[in-house]
Amino acid sequence: MHTHDLRLSEQHGTRILDPLRMLRKENHVDKIIYLDNAATSWPKPAAMLEAMSAFSSSVGANPGRSGHTLSIEAARIVLDAREALAQLLGIRDMLRVAFTKNATEALNIAILGLLGDGGHAITSAMEHNSVMRPLRFLESKGVQTSVVPCASTGELDPQDILPLIRKDTKAVIITHASNVTGTIMPIARIGALCRERGIVLCVDASQTAGAVPIDVEAMNLDVLAFTGHKALLGPQGTGGLYLRKGLESRIPPLMHGGTGSRSEFETQPDFMPDRYESGTPNTIGLAGLGAGVRYLLERGVDAVRGHEMGLTARLIAGLSSIPGVTVHGVRDAARQTAVVSFTMAGTRPSDIVLFLDADHGIMARPGLHCAPSAHRTIGTFPDGTVRFSPGSFTTASEIDAAIQAVAGMAERMDKENMA
What we know:
The protein is built from 11 helices and 15 strands. It is of the alpha/beta class. The protein folds into 2 domains: 10-31 and 300-418, Aspartate Aminotransferase, domain 1, CATH 3.90.1150.10; 48-299, 3-Layer(aba) Sandwich (Aspartate Aminotransferase, domain 2), CATH 3.40.640. The strands form 4 sheets. The chain has a 7-stranded mixed sheet, with helices on both faces.
């Protein structure tokens, strides 16, 4: 079990007072179980921290801006991260990957760029607000959006997309896997459908990049947005956007400015990745992201997937056996990521998570998970669910402890209700 000291800390002479930590101390809880990897993965590989430390202590320069030894070394670090991601995601030309600060920025570049001059888009009922909010914003500018209905398990039938396609349909924008239920969408089949009709497929891989094998070529993906701080095991503030060759001419950048290239021109470069990488990059973060991705390449995404499937199956079986607990989604580890959402009869998700944290040191996320449409689809709006999301370093014993904690709470609530 990954254990971490929960004693109150001192920082710059100021004592950090955390009521939850005080409560854990009173309850003799001195260890934590982290089950919130769908929000951000933790802990990280030691190599990630080492790479960031090495950059800060030994390099520290601005890549592509100067030409001296340290600047060249910084540029190499960025290039290495780009190359590792291309290898992991089946991207033949690593220059098709532009770095962003997160998947939300990448999605905004793609969505606003593809639809900025109008048209029609198709999305699903299981989307995160990082897709829904840009689309709703564009609707105020005249863009029209059709939402493909999904089953209460979060599943989507690609054939349901066909009746929604119009002459002016420019893009299908869809999550690879739900951040609420973990349900994996049939992206390859949707990719084939879109490619046959000349429609751009934009995929939100926030929950799958690093957790599920992805090959953009084999799956007919035109646009892939990903974050670095989740299953790619990098730090927060990192992410990226893959664009199929030629799309850069249709998608303008969100920002314009210095790129370190073509400095003689006062107009933005028109080539990848510089077109979308204005300003000083998060080089220390990309050093960490590159190390996280190389760790995954060495371990193998298939191995990570197998480990997480085992934990997910264990979690689904254990939670489903608890009276009063409902597990939402497909409830099949082979058809979902390591994301398991559940509710408990008569108890608010926020109260469950507070109890798990204070009494057991279990970190989980309650509520709507920035995906109200998904919760409406599965029938858990407006209260939402409790989401457990194990990760690469979660152990079976931690899963068992979480199940036991939920079972204990359910039993206590049942007794209180009967009293």
